[in-house]
User: Fold these one by one.
Assistant:
Number 1:
Amino acid sequence: MLFDGDVLTYRTQEVPAAAAEAFRAKTGWDPRTEPRLARVLPGAAARRSGVA
């Protein structure tokens, strides 16, 4: 499958409030208050830049 599209990126403080709230409601996770690495499963290795 091939996808073609555009991506918008924001710094944490720039994320539109409505978009952030919709993401939190859909996923149950608010990356503005809980960093991604905090969501790593127990016993799993967190990778940053492709290095364990």
Number 2:
Amino acid sequence: MFHIQARWDPDVHVWVAESDDLPGLCTESPSLEDLHAKLKVLVPELIELNHVAVEGLVANYQLIVDDQIALAA
């Protein structure tokens, strides 16, 4: 399970997602729903690019906002 931290950037009005578990992950979107849609594409791509081993064929992650799980995939 990958943990992805999301924070609201009030200066540019977007959610920013980063993760220590997935090198290279840094993306932004105007809503959490849009961010989740982006992550569904980016997470598997970064797993492949970074040659990260995952159990099974599913790359599960949790999107964490303010230390609370906001979304899980």
Number 3:
Amino acid sequence: MRNTIISLYQPSHLAGLIPTMQGCVERTAETIQLTVEGDFDFSDLALKLATDVIGQAAFGVDFALSAPPQSERDGGGEAAEFVAEHVHSTTSLKMDLSGSLSIVLGLVAPALQAPARWLLRRIPGTADRRIARTNERLRARVEEIVASRERDGDRRRGQRDFLSALLNARDGSAKMRELLTPEYVGALTYEHLLAGSATTAFTLSSAVYLVAGHPEVEAKLLAEVDRSVPSAAPAADDLQHEFPYLDQIIKEAMRFYTVSPLIARETSQQVTVGGYALPSGAWVWLAPGVMAMDAAQFPDPGEFRPERFEAGCEEERRRHQYAHVPFGLGPRACVGQRFALQELKLAMVHLYRRYVFRRSPRMESPPELQFGIVLSFRHGVWLRAVERRSAA
């Protein structure tokens, strides 16, 4: 199953997605044009952009959320309603004391979480019930999309979005048909949408917010962007090799604001870690954000300094190879790493060709973060876009 998914993230397939990603990014830039010199919530627009990109990659559907308001939107009200519920689901699961009661109980008494959730989902007015009802509606909508695509077998065989790939794989053998039930396909596809939108949007917002507060970083980024061909989207090879400072900015942004608060693993056998004996079946929690602020690995960790990720620099040579693991590590690391980085680079190259960004007076400093399945900015990222008239 994992091999089928991984095949969608091979370099050749990702290169073929560049026109789709670039189209969404250009549409986002046009939306920003309407806000020039005015305040706007960049994190909200980044989530719409990321959802548009993953919507086409996962479902083969253009939600057109990042389009200017007057544009025609493919999918109409039904698509908009689906995405509104999806966006709500990315912000309703919080892993702090502002979350649902079952989550709060899980933080202080894990054994009580499951029975509390079972009970609270049945009590009107509770956060657990609202979350459960939202998830039920989303699951029903995803299953409708799966059923529709399943009926249109001839058309989907020529498509390479995530849902089509799963259904095509299921058609290949009886074993795959048994494994890939409609419910399982729907769950995998929606998980793909969830994982590929909120995480990328947060990282893009973090990077732009941080660059906006560091003029010396912005100057180096603009110089690198301006050396590229201004009238064309970078090719896959260019994205990989021609933007080393942008690479450093993205890595440092992911360190400074680590999108995944926790990574969980379950031991498959008894193992000793750091002198502690862990039995088989024990849950092990890794906190990448805590590791990213370890001064032994990242001197002056509270300072935003992309140069600390410069290839071959002294700080990088001294650093442990697993000190910075924003995509996890090992055989269960995030399979969408290349997809996300390609999208992030395309977005930043195109946006900084056209604009620079300044923090709005409405933007709190430091920003208040909200802990959920992924990290988010509790009050958004309020910026002002300034058009670069001399660029392009």
